[in-house]
Each structure stands twice: as C-alpha cells, then as structure tokens.
Design a protein that fits this description.
heterodimer; A: two-stranded antiparallel ribbon; 15 helices; 70% helix; B: Alpha-Beta Plaits; two-stranded antiparallel ribbon; 21% helix; 38% strand; elongated
Chain lengths: 398, 106
C-alpha cells in the first residue's frame, strides 16, 4: 500500500498533540490538590507516560492490535514491534503504533484522579503496568483491534469506551479500594492553584483536536468534521456547566473547564459519526449530566475528588450512547436512533455497559491485589506531610 | 490588652474561625508560617533510612483582645484545634501597650 505524505505529516503532528495531553492532565489535577501534593500529581502523569511508553512498544501494542484471539485480546506476534515497519496503508505502521501509544499513556494518567494525595509511587507503577496490560489493552483490542465490539459494529471513533469509560470507572474502583483522604469531609481541601488547572484544561482542549481529528488516521473531510464537532461540543459543555453552577451559586472557572472536558469526552466516540447540530446537543447534555454526577458523588461522600469518574466515566458512558442516538450516515456512513436505527443504539448500549463493568471489576481486583502485596497507600505521617516530600523529596513550600 | 498568638494546624483554621465567630470574636490576623517544636519536625522512615521533614506548615492566628476575653478565646482554640498528636501547636499571650485604629482622626 502507498504512504500518503499528507496523512503521515498530519498524524505525526496529532501524535505530538496527544502526547501533550498527558502532562496536561497532570497540571489539570495538580492545581486541584493541596499545596503539598501538586508535584506528586503532575509527576504521576509523567510516570504514567513513561511506563506505558515502554510497555506499549514491548508488548502492549501487540496485545491490542495483534491477531485476534477469541475477540478478547491480540496475540504476541508484534512483540518488540516485530512486523511493525516503516510502510503501511496511508500512514506507516510504526506511526499508527505510536499514535495509539499516546492514547494508552493518557488513559493511565486520567486514572490517577482516583489515587490523588495518598498513593505510594512504587505501588502505582506496579498497578499501572498491570492496569494498562489487563484493562486498557483488551479494551483497545475490542474497539479497534478486531475484537468483539468492532465485529459487532460498535462505534467508538476516538476512545469513549477505551479511554474514558475505562479510566473513569477505573478511578472510581481505585478510590473505593484506597479509601478517603485523611480528614476528607472533616476539613476543607480547597484547590491550591486554580490557574494551573486552567492551564491544564487549555492544553487538553488543544490536544483533543489531535485526539479526535487524528483518529480518522487521514487528513480528510471526516478529520475536519471531527475537529469542528470537538470544538463545538467543548464550548457547549463549558457553557452548560457554567449556567447550571451559576443557578446554584457562583460560576467557578473550575466548573467551566470541567464542562468543556465533559463535552470533549462525550464527543470523543461520536466525532466521526455526527454533525455539528448534534454536537451542540451532545456537548450541552454532557455538561449537565457530568455536573449532576459530580453533585451525586459529593452527596455520597466518595473521595474521587478530581472527578475522573464524574467527567470521564459518566461522560464517556453518555457519549457512547449519544453516538448511537445521533450518528448520521451523511457523515460516517452509519445512522443512529433518531434516524430510525434502533439496532445501532442497542449495540452502543451493550458495548458501553461491557466496558464499564469490565473496567470497574478488573481495576477493583488489581487494586486489591497490589494493596495486599505491597500496600497501595502511603502511611498516615507521609500523607500528612504530603506526597511531594514523602515520595519525591521535593516541595513548593517556602 | 493582650495579644493572643496561636500557632495551629492549617487544616484546623476553618473550624477555629467558625468557633470564634460563634463566641463573637471576629478580629484576627492570619499568617501562613513554617515551624518546628520539640519533636524537630516529622521523621519519615524509608527502609530504615530516616528522612526528617524539618519545618512543618502551620497557621499563625493573632488577636488583640481585652484581658477578660483571653481565657474564653484560648479555651475555644484549644477545644477546636486539638487532635492529641504532636504538632497541635502553641498559644502565646503577649501584653499590648496600645491599639490605635488607623481610621481615627489624628
């Protein structure tokens, strides 16, 4: 097959943009934790990126995109990138591999929300390696590597199930295993540096264009459509969350950018299948749905306080279903529920629920195992001093 | 007049403020500080290696009050800011010669 230089150039740039999303998640979370944990939070994102970068080239890519085994996982034929060369269909195989790598790394960074301010670094590295292997790789295979969901015809353009449902529900499982931060609910744990969070959100919004438009794997009309609906949904989500929180009090910037990310999450699976009209609805509803999920979480006293579950988990779930509702054949060749295709909606429902249950259950088991073997949580003194000093020997304190 | 200078845990500040509000004591100056007591900070154990965190973040609350308010205020702070662990802080009472509002006509 011929290589297209335009497509190749475009996907190299998109890959670099998506790479930036991983430290961006670190900054987004880092601004929301207390002063003594900001370095740790950004550091976890870098650690996630490094760990997955190595795991992916050694065997992760092969598990996700190797020859199908029972619809569940890929074979190890591409171990150490065997057979992943410089040529390919449109873009080089090795470029497709690294484009997928940055998605896998980002997903592990999102899950750090569930361990904020209390995880032992060494345990997180072990957990992360297991998680990306046993949760991310199978899910990526299901959706994109020829697994059961793709055989069924489930639509996931850029990773609603693979990236967002998996990390969101994974974060929820993790934080239930870890327990709440000491003092949670007893005294305030206000975000230490909101501007850092806003910076992270800006970089995420920017990177997301590479994430969604790049998922077309070509520089064409669908990529352009994905770019536009991505931006539109982000804007609609930001405004919806802002208005909803304004009614309850002051519209915090934290809510405005959370709404943008909710919109970005929800449009992710749909970006290559829906039109701009639908993206306004999807984004706005995502803002409201994720905001409600956050309020519910707070009421229940669950300490998943950086809200990967409320924004990525619930947003991803909503996005997967919205894809089955709003998809139009005019854009991506498949119609959804509003165009009379009930079947597609049911496939999306099955796919999303399967991803949700699998991610939650397997994450819970992995977290329990790592906790039993080496302890997932720092001791009380270390938590009090903060992870910056106790895990990294660094501090932003005067 | 006395100055009450209370060094407390940062996470207790909100509770202390609320309790002082209830007692009708509002005026205060709050500063973020770092310090250590007799324990010389907190020592963390790493596989037998000791790592000492020398200066721990605290909050200093300063209030200038009439002599007869001192007992009540110190009681409130001690009741609310205590955890029973080392590092709960200290309260100092300092005599004040005069207190002059800036706004008064000179």
């Amino acid at each position: 097959m011929a290589i297209s230089s335009g497509d190749t150039a475009f996907i190299i740039i998109c890959t670099a943009m998506v790479m930036l999303m991983t430290p961006a998640v670190g900054l987004f979370y880092g601004g929301m934790v207390r002063r003594k944990n900001i370095i740790s939070m950004v550091g976890l994102a870098f650690v996630a990126f490094a760990v997955v970068s190595i795991q992916w080239v050694v065997f992760g890519y092969s598990l996700a995109f190797g020859p199908d085994i029972g619809g569940f996982i890929g074979g190890l034929d591409h171990f150490m990138l065997a057979g992943v060369g410089l040529d390919g269909d449109g873009i080089p195989d090795i470029l497709f591999m690294v484009f997928q790598l940055v998605f896998a790394a980002l997903t592990l960074a999102i899950i750090t929300s569930g361990v904020a301010e209390r995880v032992k670094l060494s345990s997180f590295i072990v957990f992360g390696l297991l998680w990306t292997t046993l949760v991310y790789d199978p899910l990526a295979h299901w959706a994109w590597g020829g697994g059961w969901a793709s055989q069924l015809g489930a639509l996931d353009f850029a990773g609603g199930t693979v990236v967002h449902i998996s990390s969101g529900f994974g974060a929820l499982a993790l934080c239930l295993v870890l327990g709440v931060r000491k003092g949670f609910g007893k005294y305030g744990m206000e975000p230490y540096n909101v501007p850092i969070t806003l910076l992270g959100a800006a970089l995420l919004w920017f990177g997301w264009f590479g994430f969604n438009a790049g998922s077309e794997l070509a520089a064409d009309g669908i990529a352009a459509n994905a770019f536009v609906v991505t931006n539109t949904a982000a804007a609609a989500g930001a405004l919806a969350w802002m208005i909803a929180s304004w009614i309850r009090g002051k519209p915090a910037t934290l809510g405005i950018v959370s709404g943008a990310i909710a919109g970005l999450v929800a449009i992710t699976p749909a970006a290559g299948f829906v039109d701009v009209k639908a993206s306004i609805v999807i984004g706005a509803l995502a803002g409201l749905v994720c905001y409600s999920a956050l309020l519910w979480r707070q009421k229940k006293g669950i300490d998943e306080s950086l809200d990967a579950w409320a924004v990525h988990g619930v947003g991803g779930l909503f996005g997967a279903l919205a894809t089955g509702i709003f998809a139009t054949a005019v854009i991506g060749g498949v119609d959804g529920l509003i165009y009379g295709n009930v079947n597609q909606f049911l496939i999306q429902l099955l796919d999303a629920v399967a991803a949700m249950v699998y991610a939650f259950v397997v994450t819970y088991i992995l977290a329990k195992v790592v906790d039993k073997v080496m302890g997932l949580r720092v001791d009380e003194k270390e938590e009090y001093v903060g992870l910056d000093i106790s895990q990294h020997g660094e501090t932003v304190e005067a | 007049m006395k100055k009450i200078e209370a060094i407390i845990r940062p996470e207790k500040l909100e509770d202390v403020k609320a309790a002082l509000d209830e007692g009708g004591h509002f005026a205060m100056t709050v500063t973020n500080v770092h310090g250590r007591g007799a324990q010389r900070g907190i020592s963390l154990q790493f596989r037998g290696r000791k790592v000492n965190v020398d200066l721990i973040p605290k909050v200093k609350v300063e209030m200038v009050v009439e002599d007869d308010e001192v007992a009540e205020i110190t009681q409130i702070i001690r009741r609310v800011a205590v955890t029973g662990e080392a590092g709960d802080g200290k309260i100092f009472i300092i005599p004040i010669e005069m207190s002059i509002p800036v706004r008064d006509k000179a």
